[in-house]
Amino acid sequence: MTQSTIGRVGQVKEITSLSNPVIKDIRALGQKKNRDRSSSFMAEGLKLIIDALDQGWRIQTLVYAKDAKGSANVDSVAARTVAAGGLVLEVPQKVLGAITRRDNPQMVCGVFEQRYAALKDLHPKAGETYVALDRVRDPGNLGTIIRTADAAGASGVILIGDSTDPFSLETIRATMGSIFAVPVARSDIAGFLKWRDGKDALLVGTHLEGAVDYRMIDYTASPAILLMGNEQAGLPPALAERCDRLARIPQSGRADSLNLAVATAVMLFEARRHLLEV
Fold it and tell me: Which of 213, 247, 220 is nearest to 128 (CA)?
């Protein structure tokens, strides 16, 4: 390991070997057990790094490709990392590719401290919409739902039960940076129902046997919580029985169901249509 300097950024560590302990630790974040152990995760792409810093997320390490040296935007992000007490690493393209598991990686990635919202601190207010997901298993679906929640102006996403990791690299990629803007909480079924019982909010569950067309529900009277079931199993009785409304999305084609992320998007934009109209 050698030392180099990038303009006004100050001291930056140059690493060329995949066997370097710091690089090994970053690559290990590809496994959930290591993310959990360190309470860290990795995001890639200059825009995502800037979004995270602008939202006040704590960056631990910034890694950029040597070819990006001298870029004003990269220098700015590096300076912000140093100011926040983080480590800045300059690496060859092959090292960055190994870290991100891409043949053609983006020029910048960062390691951040994980952040979950505490469910007890979420207090639905008039005009707010939350998405609750029961046992979502696909990281691409979860990332897309977080991104959609951001686009629709939802106030948070709640993961119920054994769900996929919102801080996996696959999920982070699918959020396109929205992971830094949308609060994500987690709970078991009992904890979620206890939290909901203390809230004056409309709980709408989607169900293939739902009695109400999702377009016929009045989402304007109170905050709404949209409860989406597992893509294979749907909502379990323990959750379905506690919903104020069980909604269905009418279909006329041969497909017997919608992709979870698509169904969530349909519900979200209908629930918030009265707030999104210009």
Answer: 220
Q: Between 3.40.50.2000, 3.40.1280.10, 1.20.1250.20, 3.20.20.140, what CATH number should domain 119-276 receive?
A: 3.40.1280.10
pLDDT at 104: 77
Q: Which residue has the tokens 């990635």?
A: 109
Report d(CA 206, CA 252) in Å as an integer: 17
- The string of pLDDT tens digits covering residues 76-92 is 999 999 999 999 999 99
Distance (Å, whole) CA 155 – CA 175:
15
CATH 3.30.1330.30 intervals, the chain: 2-113
pLDDT in tens, 180-206: 999 999 999 999 999 999 899 999 999
Backbone dihedral angles phi then psi of residue 191, each to the nearest 5 degrees: -65, -40
99: Cα separation from own chain's centroid: 20
Q: Which one is the CATH code of 2-113: 3.30.1330.30, 3.10.450.50, 3.40.50.360, 3.40.50.300?
A: 3.30.1330.30
Q: Is residue 138 scored above 60 in pLDDT?
A: yes
